[in-house]
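Hi R.,

Here's the chain you asked about this morning:
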Amino acid sequence: MTAHTAAQGSGISDDTAIRALLQRSCDAWNRGDGTAYGELFTADATDVTFTGTVYHGGQDIGRAHQALFDSFLKGTRLAVEITGIRFYGPDTAVVTTRGDVHKGRPKELGKLATYTVVRETDGHWRIAAVQKTRHKRLLETISFRLRPATRPAAR
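And here is the predicted structure, written out as tokens:
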């Protein structure tokens, strides 16, 4: 059994455990539970929001998000679609996602996020860093037309 097939000795794959971690982040967000949201991050995590705000540490991330859940983000839901998981050794992975915050149904998953997740000494996967960016399709299209070499290689 490789490091990517067993999480916490439970027999579930690391891929499955990481997907469950991000699902728990959505669940905590959807409940408006900043404490539970913050607990999914490492003690020294970095959260760079799409507005450019930088939070440090799970406790601060949870505290700040609770304030957001109680005001600007009250009643919102987080939708996340994982587009890739790449492992870098047995205890580190980079996860790319599309997602958005919405009330009702999301119109589109217009934000991109890159997560670095780590398995901590207690065997649990947690978010060590996340960087969120709004996808700007118009600017991207202009860039590709003016400079075709800027288009990413097809996968």
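One quick note: The domain at 14-150 is CATH 3.10.450.50 (Nuclear Transport Factor 2; Chain: A,).

Cheers,
M.
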